[in-house]
Structures are given as structure tokens and as C-alpha cells.
# Entry
Amino acid sequence: MELLTNILAATVVAGTPLLLVALGELICERSGVLNLGQEGMMLMGAVAGFAAALSSGSLVVGLAAAILAGIGMSLLFAFMAVTLAANQYAAGLALTIFGTGLSAFLGAGFVGQSIDGFTRVAIPLLSDIPVVGRVFFDQDPLVYLSLLIFACVAVFLRKTRGGLLLRAVGESPEAANANGLKVLVVRYLAVAFGGGMAGLAGAYLSLAYTPLWTENMTAGRGWIALALVVFATWRPERVLLGAYLFGAASILHLVLQGLGWKSSTELLAMLPYLVTILMLVLLSWNPARTRLNTPLSLGQPYRPGR
Amino acid sequence: MTAALRLKLENIVKEYPGCRANDGIDLTVEAGEIHALLGENGAGKSTLMKVIYGVVQPDEGRMLWNGHEVRVENPAQARSMGIGMVFQHFSLFETLTVAENIALSLPPEEARDRGALDQRIREVSERYGMALDPRRYVSTLSVGERQRVEIVRCLIQETTLLILDEPTSVLTPQEVTALFSTLRQLAKEGCSILFISHKLEEVRSLCHNATVLRQGRVSGDCQPAELSAAEIARMMVGDDTPISTQVSTAEPGDVLLDVRNLNWKSNDPFGTSLDQVSLNLREGEIVGIAGVAGNGQDELLKALSGEIRTDSGSMRFADTDLGSLAPDQRRKLGVAIVPEERLGRGAVPEMSLADNALLTASGQGLVERGMIRFGKVREFSREVIRRFGVRCTGENSAAGSLSGGNLQKYIIGREALQNPRLLVASHPTWGVDVGSAVAIHEALVRLRDEGAAIVLISEDLDELYQLCNRLGALCHGRLSPLAPTAELSIEQLGQWMAGEFESGEVAHAAA
# Structure
């Protein structure tokens, strides 16, 4: 029981960075913009957050720096992909390559240093519930923040006018423009939100998950998040589920190794990616529901005024 | 009708690269007036509407709204002034509900209370006889219902000028009648209506006044009820273009194509499946398939062409089982296809006319032992251009550089010169100028007289009645019986288009 609770708690922690970046990408894609730069923005967030926290001694300053770094990167992307209507795939890939290189360059001096990262803060009363208390209410503050953001995103998409605007622009920017909606503004905001969330996810890695900086420390989570959003059919609940599934599978491989499982570590390390995608493929079975949630204009540049 | 001036345009000019879409247009619309804007495709109607609705800005000219000069910066401003627009290609979001679609075009404070909004939508839609359920997803609505959503969306915002862009092209005749009575009711209440169309009979029955455009200029103002359709058509096309085809009677021969209980299931949840489609076709006759867009026309064409595979055994062509053959094998048997989309399916826009000829006519000796005979390709292409009066700079011009009408003449000509036994043509004159449409109709009739069997899929009922020996309609992937054109009333066809096949079934429909 003790072991299971600990595994579940570790699952949530492992799933949180993925949840953060995927929620950001979800909003971004719902506006019809596909940003393949997640990995680059996460790395920039991670290095900026670590550097700021180290030099200021404040984790909150670190977080703010990470979010700003993410937003800054995403605005660069938005300028190319939204304002100049460049190819979104190419612009996103360029952003990832740029972010990977730049973060390694900026972070070179920080390798090997460490800080005191975020630690667990138990919520009174709630954390006393067996199992659930430890898993969800005895975690670091960023886990709580991620759950709060998740709830906000879910409500925003379904219940608010802003969410309606976002879905409308993502389905058909032409029709949105004909209806007098400001397509470019909506897309800019969505891309910036995605950038901020990617920065935050990066900071989670360098300030909470493993409070240090190493080159390329995101280890492909940005790419997994992209797949997660698609297989979650652009629905926040499924993104949450997928993120924790990924977390569970990545904990599982550590547990299995600990238990002396005789198998190659490479195969086990593959497990989280495999399990997550398989599970979500099975979930995204109903084509009618999927189509209602798919942003039809995804990946298509939009030039207004014709 | 001595009402206040609602809208006055003076000397509107809008230039696009390489084309002066509006060249000094004047237009006045009074309160409570139904005003027609007539013209061929490319005459500048759509551009003028976009100027009024603020989608594009004019390069020159003034716009007066209720007597005051205004500059409409964007559609939101136009709406707040009281200008509403129903687009030809609807500006609705399919993945949202009716109420959500309408909420998007309202000011935020009016859209906040969804319950109240639902109630308002119901009230307005019932008042004008256009029942709507605010909770339904737009993707589940028929084309006619979608148009209602657009109109209700305008009315809910207290619109005083309603612009309708070719509103009847997607409706059954009964739906058109219902729409017209709604519009008349609106006009009585003081709403001005700008009705864009190229269907002259409709304009004559509905509109008080008309402005006719030709090549970006006003070619005349008139009261359409007092002129004949032919006189108005002359104003639209000018003096030197033929405006109608004389169709001789046909003498059909043996049955060439026999389709029995053809089924095909669509993978797309919102797509149309073909359900028990049966039709037969004789040599030397034209069979017309009417229907509102999206009811299986494209699927039927693809099933005949072989682009989608159906069960074998349900289609017999002469003595062969067509269903088991691939598209190129069918082509060798003499099946020619003219799809709806000219650019992308009928022709490759970036390739020259000659290369486009090669794509379907390679069997006409243009390829020998795997080598392309470029001389022959050019010769074939020049022959098409000459015989069908295609206006272009030669066989090397890119297909995409031709006007819609000229490219369509080329595509039809390319198929016709291969002496097909069966030609399936979908919307061959859609978006085509009157002169080209006449040429295309003549080409089809000539093919028929030479013994070819033709399936003509179209939304243009005038075209179908003019050319076809027998007519039927598709609805939800089901085909009505086929009846001889002379014995089929337009009301009956309208019911078929709406899916009511049982009412008044024609006795010799199976003939």
C-alpha cells in the first residue's frame, strides 16, 4: 500500500510537466496554429528559470523568468507563423532547433550547480485522506498550480465566450473574419499562452522535478506533448489522463528496474511513450466526437483581407 | 415607394492586381426595398458586397448610410450599423451549435445569458417561419437550415439592410418559395434587401428594382418585373453573346449503363453514403440528376468514375461489370468524367493545357511504347482549343490561368474529342459565363446526338429541364425514380429533392 501510494504520487509529479506543456499546446492548436517549437520553448523556460532562481535566490522570480522566456520564444514564432503567415511546421521546427541550441549556450555556465527547488507543501485536512491525500494534496505548489490551470482551461473552452472565439477561429479563420472576429489577435494570444505554459513546464523540470540544469533536460517531452494533444482529440480531460499515464509508465520503468526486472533498459525507457500513445489511440476511436473537437484549420496559415 | 434612402453608393472603385473588379459603381437602395444586383460571375457583384459589408475597403468612392457619409472598416462595424449579410458559402462554424454561432456575432453582453438567447432565437425564427433548434450542431443541419441560421443571425441584430448572396442556389423550389415570403414580410416591415443573383425569373418575381453589372460597371438599372428575362440577360452579357441553346429532341437507343441497388458507405461521419441507387441510361440520351449540394452527387460521380470502389455486380456498362474496374480501365471502355472542381480534379492548374490533355487522353495515340508523342499531344490540344473556342494564348498556357468558362470548355472538349460512350458531368456550367455555358450545352447535345449517353449532375434546374430526357433527384444518398422531363412538374422534382420519393410516384419511372 505504502509502495503503491508512493508510485501514484511519483506518477503525478512525472506527469505534471507534460500536463503543463500539453495544456498550452492544446489552446494554441485550438486556434488553428500548430507550434512544433514546444521542446525549444521548454528548454528556454528551464534554463531561464534556473538562472533567474539561482541569481536572485527566489523560486518565484525563476518561475516568472521561465514564463517570460517561453512567451518571448512563442512571440518569435507567432511573428513568423501568424503575422508573416509562414509555414507553421517549418517555423515551429526552427524554433525547437533554435531553443535547443540557445539554451545549451546560455546554460553552459550553470551545469553542475544546484539550488533548493520547490518542495512538498501538504494541504491541511485534505492531505490526511488515505492515498488520495498523499497523491494529490501533499505535493509541491506547481502541481496544485497545474491542476488549477487544467480546470481553468477546461471551463474556458466550454463555458466562456473567449473559448467560443478560440474554437471558432480554429475551425475557420475565414468565417471568423467574415463574422468580424479578430483572427490574428486570437491566434497571437493562443500562441503566447502556449509559450508561457511551455516555459512553466520547463521551469518545473529545472526548479522542482530535478532542481538543476543539464543540456537537453526536457528529453523529448515537448514532442510527446504534441502527440498527446492530437491523440487526446483536443480535449483537456484526456490531456490530463494522458499526461498521468505517461507519468505512470515512466515511474513504472524505474520500479521494474528496482525490482530487478531482467530486460534491457532501453526497452523499458521506451515504455512510457508507447503506453501513452497506444492508450490514446484507443480512446480517440469515435470519429464523430473527434471531429467536433478538431480545429479544422490546424496548420494552415491565414492571410486576412481578401 | 417613396421611402427614405437607406444606402447610396457613389463611384465605388476597387482594384485587385490585374483586374478592376469595381469600376465606378453607383447604387441606391431605399428603405423597405428589395433591390436586385445582377451580373455574371466576375461582373463585380461579390466585390461590391464585400465593400458594403466592410470586408474590403474601396480604393475610391463614397458610401452614404441613411444620408450620412460612412466608412465601413470591418464587418463588425457594418453589423453595428444594421447591415447583415448572408454569404453564398456560409460563414458558419460547423463544430459549434446554432446558438453558439449566433452568440459569436452578438455583442458580449447580449450573448451572456444563453437561456435568454435560445429563447430569442426561437422567437425570431418562428416569427419569420424559419423553425430552428438553437441547441443543434450546425454540422447536422441541411444546407437550407444553415441558411436560416445565417438569416436569423442577421435578424436578431435588428438589421435594416440584409444582403443575400445567391441565396437560392442551394435550395429546393419549395424552400425558395418559403424564403421569398420571409423576405417580402421583412421588406414590408421596412428592412431593405439587397438580393444578389443571376437567376432572372426569381429576380423578376421578387425584386422591386435591379442594378445590372457587367465587367465591373453598371450596365443598367431597371424594374425587373417590367422587362422580360431575355431583355435583362442582354443587359448582363452585352449584345454579342448567344444566351440560349436550341436543343433538338433525342432518339435514345439501347440501354448502355444499368446501375442496380448501388450501395456505398462513407467513412466520414458527416459524409453522405449512397443508398440503393438505381438508374439506367440509354445511348443518345441525357439523364439529369438534381439535388441540393451534399446529398451524394459527388459520391455518385466517384462511384461511376471508379474513384471510390463499390461492390462489384451493381453496375453494368454494355456487357461489362463496371464495379470491378479501376478508373483507367473504365476510361478505356469509353467512360469520361467531368468532375465538379475544375482546378485540382478536372485539370492540374500549374500544368499546361497540353499536359492536361495528356492526363486523360493518353489512350488516343498520344503515348507510344511508353514514350510521349509531344507533337501529337500539342496537335490534340490545339484541336480542342479550336473546336471548342477556348480563349487562351495557346496550348502552352497554364490551366490555372484560364477563366472558369474557358477552362471548362477545354475540359469538356478534351473528353468529347475522345468519343466517349458515357460522359458523367457534374455542374459543368457552375460559375461559367453565359457564352461559355451555351457552348458547353451545345457540346453536350452534340455528343448525345452522336450516340453518347450522358449523366448530367447539376443544381441548375433550368439547365436540367433544358437538356435532359429524363430527370431524377438525389437526397441523402438516395436517388428518386427517373421521370421523362416533359412529364415532371417542378413541384414534383422539388419534393424529390427534399427526399419525398413516395408522393406521386411516376408510373413509368422504370422506363
Observations:
- Confidence is low (pLDDT under 50) at residues 505-511 of chain B.
